[in-house]
């Protein structure tokens, strides 16, 4: 019995032992070819090594190599032999595959050899940073994408290993290399029929390297590396030409690592990160119906960046102890470029920005990018509806900062004037409102009336707050004067009373006509119903007469029988 158990145990160990022998044999072959003076042998060995690392047996193969050579001497030998020569890019790709392998990313102490694989690879990466950067710079300066990409991928794999290594790369790497910003460019070339397609480019590798620093997520590292404004400008300004996968990757990292309180990135630095061109790129992406998750993610990022003051764009002058001035000009420029009458995400973003903010709402309406004077335009209704939505959004989230103030603001104060500009937008003048209310097209009337109603709702909110203020305040005269000034101004801005009377008169006539038509229809329905009932009665009467005749005929049979014709009748029956 014991012998049988021993045999079974040996049979179970045999495949593992065989695999180990195979790995060692294959590893020796690859390392021999890797250090060969022949370029093709080295390149083929690098590619096969990478393929094995990505296979199911990759973890065992990696462990076998690090156990055999903890300092990865053969890799450095191949590096020195192939640098500045054909095939060097394959060696760099192999190193990148080794350093980014999941089993080599953590401290993993091998019980047999006593080698900590993770730490061994960290030391290997640190040697590259400290001793091999000149070789990498030469590859970057080669202006050949196939040589530049492996360098960026290798550096990204080092950065992702740990925040400490990432910090060391950030300190040593020369971000001011003249060639470096050019690696972010999307190279396009014309094709037949004026088509354009992407050429072999370094952009994706550049994005991966740049975002690797943020992936690590260390707050101290984030604040330091984001000082490399040109690098991240290169990433964000070119997103409009990236594929959906790249856009989702970049925006997801920004959401999870930068646009969160834990990042400790100050508002000023966040504001620099999201410059005008970057915002335009995000707006363009959010408006693309074919971009799926990327469009939604871009919209969410825009909402966060443009509405939360900690991101450096939205002002918050009431913030204590340090007010945030934001960048309202950049916001306004962005708002005017939104296709808010066509794209739902653009409209949502616009309304989110102006929500409860009369300063931005009035500035936008003052430079309204749509024509409201041409009532015959097919786009007029969409434009006037958007203006009404903007005023409604300003009103919905509005907080009156002077409610608890003992002294009322003046009529000329910015806050009151901004609200007045929302109540009567400059492009939507009294003349335009008069024409709209008297227009023959019901859609124009409806759009104009909707805008006037939103203006009146905002005015009502303002008046209610003023009444609340001066009912609790001893400076009654000054509060009353402010209210009177507002009322006087509004009387000049709102539609003419005669126009309103004419409008309501026409509406009354319209509804009376509708009632008249309804009555006529009801009477017509009654007449029709009466006619139908009479027809039914007539049919019923006729049917009854037929029955009577029939019954009469049956009743006369006995008489026929009495006259001797009864048998014929019975026979017929």
UniProtKB/TrEMBL annotation:
Q: Where is the URB1 N-terminal domain?
A: 74-382
* Signal peptide range: none
Name used for this protein in its record: Ribosome 60S biogenesis N-terminal
Q: Which Pfam families match?
A: Npa1
Q: Which InterPro entries match?
A: URB1, URB1_N
């Amino acid at each position: 019995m014991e012998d049988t158990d021993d045999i079974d145990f040996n049979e179970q160990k045999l495949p593992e032992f065989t695999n180990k022998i195979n790995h060692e044999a294959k590893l020796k072959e690859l390392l021999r070819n890797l250090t060969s003076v022949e370029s093709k042998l080295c390149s083929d060995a690098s590619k096969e090594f990478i393929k094995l690392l990505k296979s199911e047996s990759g973890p065992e193969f990696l462990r076998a190599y690090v156990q055999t050579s903890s300092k990865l001497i053969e890799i450095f030998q191949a590096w020195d032999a192939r640098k500045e020569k054909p095939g060097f890019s394959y060696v760099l790709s192999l190193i990148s595959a080794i350093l980014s392998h999941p089993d080599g990313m953590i401290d993993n102490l091998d019980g047999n050899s006593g080698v900590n694989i993770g730490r061994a690879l960290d030391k290997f990466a640190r040697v590259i940073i400290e001793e091999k950067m000149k070789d990498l710079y030469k590859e970057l300066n080669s202006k050949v994408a196939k040589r530049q990409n492996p360098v960026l991928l290798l550096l990204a794999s080092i950065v992702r290993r740990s925040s400490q290594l990432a910090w060391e790369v950030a300190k040593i790497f020369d971000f001011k290399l003249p060639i470096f910003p050019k690696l972010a460019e999307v190279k396009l070339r014309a094709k037949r029929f004026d088509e354009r397609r992407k050429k072999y480019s370094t952009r994706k590798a550049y994005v991966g390297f740049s975002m690797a620093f943020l992936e690590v997520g260390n707050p101290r590292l984030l604040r330091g590396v984001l000082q490399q404004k040109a690098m991240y400008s290169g990433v964000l300004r070119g997103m409009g030409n990236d594929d959906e996968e790249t856009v989702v990757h970049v925006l997801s990292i920004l959401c999870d690592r930068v646009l969160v309180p834990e990042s400790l990135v100050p508002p000023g630095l966040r504001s620099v990160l999201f410059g005008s061109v970057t915002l335009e790129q995000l707006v363009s992406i959010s408006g693309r119906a074919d971009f799926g998750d990327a469009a939604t993610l871009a919209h969410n990022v825009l909402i966060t960046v443009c509405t939360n003051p900690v991101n450096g764009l939205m002002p918050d002058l009431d913030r204590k102890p340090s007010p945030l001035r934001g960048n309202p000009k950049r916001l306004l420029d962005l708002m005017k470029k939104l296709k808010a009458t066509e794209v739902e995400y653009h409209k949502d973003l616009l309304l989110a920005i102006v929500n409860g903010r009369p300063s931005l709402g009035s500035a936008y309406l003052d430079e309204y990018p749509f024509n409201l004077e041409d009532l015959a335009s097919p786009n007029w209704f969409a434009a006037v509806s958007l203006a009404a939505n903007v005023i409604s959004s300003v009103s919905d989230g509005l907080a009156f900062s002077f409610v608890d103030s003992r002294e009322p603001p003046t009529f000329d104060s910015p806050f009151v004037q901004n609200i007045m500009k929302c109540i009567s937008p400059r492009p939507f003048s009294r003349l335009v409102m008069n024409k709209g209310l008297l227009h023959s097209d019901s859609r124009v009337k409806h759009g104009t009336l909707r805008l006037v109603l939103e203006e009146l709702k905002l005015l009502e909110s303002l008046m209610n707050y003023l009444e609340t203020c001066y009912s609790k305040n001893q400076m009654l005269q000054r509060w009353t004067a402010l209210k009177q000034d507002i009322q006087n101004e509004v009387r000049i801005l709102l539609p003419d009373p005669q126009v309103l009377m004419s409008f309501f008169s026409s509406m009354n006539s319209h509804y009376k006509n509708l009632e008249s038509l309804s009555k006529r229809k009801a009477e017509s329905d009654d007449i029709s119903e009466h006619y139908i009932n009479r027809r039914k009665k007539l049919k019923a009467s006729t049917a009854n007469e037929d029955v009577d005749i029939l019954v009469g005929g049956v009743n006369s049979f006995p008489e026929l029988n009495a006259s001797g014709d009864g048998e014929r009748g019975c026979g017929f029956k």
